[in-house]
Amino acid sequence: MISEIILIIILSLIQGLTEFLPISSSAHLLLPNLLFGTKDLGLSFDVATHAGTLVAVIMYFKEEIKRMIKSFFTSSKEFTEDRSLAVLLIVATIPIVMAGLASSDIIQQRLFTLNSIALMNIIFAFILYLAYKISPKTKDIMQLTLFAAIFIGFFQIFALIPGASRSGTAITAGLLLGLSMKEASKFSFMLGIPTILGALVFLTIDIASASVSINLLHLIIGFVISSIIAFLTIKYFLLFVEKIGVAPFIVYRLALGLILIII
Question: Rounded to 5, what percent of the chain is helix, strand, coil?
Answer without folding.
Answer: 80, 0, 20
